[in-house]
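Problem 12. The chain below contains 395 residues. Write out its predicted structure in token notation.
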Amino acid sequence: MRWSQWMSERARATEGREGAARVQERAEMEPETRETEEPEGGQPEAAESVDWVALADALQELYAAETPARCIQSALAAAAEHLGASFLLVLLLDQEERSLTAAHLAEIDHMRVSKVIAALDQDPAELVLPVDGERARILRSDGPTVTGDFRALFAGAISAEQCEEAQRVLHIRTVISLPLAARGRRLGIASLWYRRPSPGLKPARKLVEHLALALWTHQAEDRARQYGNIDPETWVFNRRYLFEAGRRELYRARKHERPLSLAVLDLVDIGRFEEEYGPTLAAKVLRSVAVRLAGAASPIDVVARYEDGRFVVLLPETDRAGAEEQVTRLIEELGEDPDLLPVKDGPEMRIAAAVASFPEDGASLEALIRSAKGSLPQPEDKGESQEQAAGGVTA
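Solution.
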């Protein structure tokens, strides 16, 4: 995901939450009987009375749900109570948008889910359904598809005979399937199963519309949290995440009396390199160094960009001797890497590093970083040895 796209999604994610506040206002304007609609594969629906205010209250629960699974569970409850639906099946697209899954059902504790699993003799949460055939058509459609059964939804995964038997056991007479779409993005398919003929289409569309927006909001917030911890230029953690992780590790080290160290690494010549070769190649150098640092770090280490050409490596469970040994090895590996710089026969890129350990060098992350930065070579000392750099390591 491009950084600009993420920023846009992060700003728009809050709009989904605002949707809940508008539900009540819209509901009061809805008529008690609905206009006639012509769905695909079905006849115009019959007029039906709906308590729109009660439905609006139920729709607000979708936006208040803490997880997508809880959101879908709230939608299932609303479909049963206010739409008279026997079941709501939600199939969500995977990241590659090549298959649909109902894995979230494993997190939903609802009697209706148990009944469907028993009737199908198959847990839908375990199914991975390719986007093809009728599923692809529903996903790309702009309106509801009304049929008398749900065989097409499970084609290739559950036999037609088993679907027919399940439909008989569950007394399903009408299936309304709609695409889950919000903000121009297709999220999956929502399928409402009814025990009566000609159920209302407008309440179904209203429920699915808000379910899609609530799910989109969850996905956007998840992406915001994921990419909000990443520095867009170097692809390692950013300064904000460094301080979050640092505070957690300091608390753990203090509580359990465990060692904790960090290293500050400084690309001494990055400013001169940028002046000579431009910001694009300088950014490639930063990313190249960051990726190699992250690749060499252990699973519990945290590699983060601190500022400009400076990185911090947080080293839990590591004392000063271990930190100095690890950083020396990292510096040597970077210095011997022939592909570190994007230009051949260019200027050397010196990397200086210094370590600090808790508690001897500081009791907070800020104090530890300040201590390590104080041990880095000063401008007039750059290029000197580790001993001459007061604890720094220079390659």
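Discussion. The mean pLDDT is 83. Students who got a different answer should revisit the alignment rule from Section 12.3.
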